[in-house]
Amino acid sequence: MLDLLVVGGGPVGLATALYAARSGLAVGVVEPRAQPVDKACGEGLMPGAIAALDDLGIAPQGRPFLGIRYTDGVHEATADFRGAPGLGVRRTTLQASLAAAVTARGIPVHPRSVQRLEQDGHGVCAAGLRARYLAAADGLHSPVRRLVGLAGRPSGRPRFGLRRHFAVEPWSDYVEVHWARDREAYVTPVDDNCVGVALLTGRREPYDVQLAHFPALRARLPAVGASPVRGAGPLRQRTTARVAGRVLLVGDAAGYVDALTGEGIAVGVASARALVDAVVSDDAASYERTWKSASRNYRWLTQLLLGARHQSAVAQLIVPAAQRLPRVFDAAVHQLAH
């Protein structure tokens, strides 16, 4: 019997498996998709995420960025990271690096999906495997979360993410966040000849239609994208708890507010470590507390910013306020960076 079965082979799932193996646990991964798994995301790793990946021996290739820049076409605010830079990394590059590390550690990855699971006081059975604990890292719309009854009711206005790459030399050493009336565009340099442009929006419109709302940005980009458009959402996902018996939720499966602050990987990897600590100590209940601690800053700052974004009069003041209050903006970015 395994000590831990990880359901989901995305970055957080693979990080969970690596932490488990490093702690001496017998671990396996269930992931039906072929590697590397792609996903619509901003592709910017904050310094804290880079440090956590480095601790696991993961050093993906990418392009460094110095901080975060907000712009609405009139106002602009820039905050540098106080220590190490961030890193723009193609999602498939990050995924391949983690998958290679999992293979090198001899962690088995089973090409299966979880349709049902059973658990008792000693373990969990899923996808034909049995383990003392199961880590559900199966994403935003986690089937495992639903199977164990931890899915909360949707709330708030739905938001969606769309991402495409453009073959152009990055014009900035920052992740640029372009603000429009009811959507944002995140521009991340991912290598010396490519930027990723992720749109966060409440509108169900084609990518090119939405990109047209950022005319200054659109003018910098080639007419044709270098990759297909990928989408994700609704982004807001509520959970009633992170633990159901011997099943523990991690990453996006554990609940998600929004991609506004770009902390998904950093919070997910920190949560993965906390989950493994709970399994090692045979104290699943402790994970709920440590997850809340690891994700507190992300949840607080993201909910605050999202609340402002949903009030049109307030939303128009976000970038001007960041420009007029550079120390406040710098402090917020510093919190997100770690």
Cα end-to-end separation: 37 Å
**CATH A-level architecture of the largest domain:** 3-Layer(bba) Sandwich
Number of domains: 2
Structural class: alpha/beta
User: How many strands, what sense, and barrel or not for the largest sheet?
Assistant: 8 strands, mixed
Structural overview:
The structure is a single chain. With 338 residues, the protein is an alpha/beta fold. It folds into two domains: 206 residues, FAD/NAD(P)-binding domain (3-Layer(bba) Sandwich), CATH 3.50.50.60; 73 residues, Alpha-Beta Plaits, CATH 3.30.70. Helix content is 34%, strand content 24%. The protein is built from eleven helices and 18 strands. The strands form three sheets. Strands 1, 2, 8, 9, 10, 11, 17 and 18 form an eight-stranded mixed sheet that branches. The chain has a seven-stranded mixed sheet with strand order 6-5-13-14-15-12-16. Helix 1 packs parallel to helix 7, helix 2 runs parallel beside helix 7 and helix 7 packs antiparallel against helix 8. It is globular. 48% of the residues are buried. The mean pLDDT is 92.
